[in-house]
Request: fold
Amino acid sequence: MELIHGADELSRTTRSWRADAFEVGLVPTMGSLHEGHASLIRHARDEAARVVVSIFVNPAQFGPGEDLVTYPRDEARDLEVCRRLGVDAVWAPAEEEVYPPDAPLPEPDPGPVGETFEGAARPGHFRGVLKVVHRLFDLTGPCRAYLGEKDAQQLFLVRRMVEQMGLPVTIVPCPTAREPDGLAYSSRNARLGAEEREQAGCLFLALSEAAALARAGETDAAILVAAMGREIGATPLARLDYAAVVRDDTFEATTLLRGPSRAIVAASFPSARLIDNLRLPHAAEES
Ligand code: AMP
Reply:
């Protein structure tokens, strides 16, 4: 496995792979790798001849007062995980390699969807996400990029950027990997104390209740949202940030469940803010 730090070196490496007709798969991460990242890497390994994992805690997607400085980092362990999973190259750049001080980079506009939910809670977050993802695509030239459904709004916005800018990459959405109690793997879970960890399952419980209501034929999104709010509201250490039902095709909140849609939640615990989502069954699928 190659460990690459420089931007030019990354481009050279992937260019030579493409010249040898190898398809390049990219898994962008912020490191502190867990089972969720591993599932993306395995997916990439199955489909692409060469797999690049990027590890970069992107300052541009953190707001003032957020956890940029304390974000969990463990490069030695991450490299071991990547080696074990058969990754061909890890790109672990310094900030200047991603954002060269003398070269302005494209800053794709997340548009109005970038201002809602995670974008409302974290102003500027998606602008930073799209900037780094665009840069990663530009340097790596991947045929496919593997992104988790865990970050559904991010996935939506990256797909839309690719579509609108006509970028030559296929986005491959990967299902959320979960702990036995349903908690989605997340680098931030490591921060939860024992009691918080025990209660963190409430996000998945809330989403599962919404899915059960939809499965039983409920089409009023407000009923689902209220159920999710009650579940998280009844969890002593959790503070509900938002619960909503959004349409898959627009990521806009909907009042009536018709086509493909998703329940989304965010809740703050004393040591970490967690997000999760679940695709909802809908009538057209049941018939
Ligand atoms: P992060 O390191 O948190 O920026 O995540 C890197 C990639 O892994 C993103 O595409 C995430 O959506 C994805 N990811 C994070 N957690 C999970 C999970 N539990 N299951 C599947 N994918 C995940």
Summary: The pocket of adenosine monophosphate is lined by residues 29-30, 36-37, 39-40, 147-148, 150-151, 174, 176-177, 184-187 (CB under 6 Å). The first strand starts at residue 2 and ends at 4.
